[in-house]
Amino acid sequence: MPKQKTHSGAKKRFKVTGSGKIMKQSAGMRHNLEKKSSEVTRRLNMDQTLAPADAKGVKKLLGKYGK
């Protein structure tokens, strides 16, 4: 049986930390940044951890789970 390929869309959007958590970029940093305060843009620019329920599906796409 061949190996399962990593989902190319998922590998561009998510990264796995050393402890196994899934990190993602915050939404809201693409446009309309002039209206947002510096405080908001700094907060949105940080990576966020994904909820455990969503992380399970993402790990499957990234090939970090068995089956």
Automatic annotation (TrEMBL):
GO terms for cellular component: cytosolic large ribosomal subunit. It comes from the Bacteria. GO terms for molecular function: structural constituent of ribosome. One of its GO terms (biological process) is translation. Keywords: Ribonucleoprotein, Ribosomal protein. Gene3D superfamilies: 4.10.410.60. Pfam families: Ribosomal_L35p (PF01632). Belongs to the bacterial ribosomal protein bL35 family. This is Large ribosomal subunit protein bL35. It comes from Glaciihabitans tibetensis. The gene is rpmI.
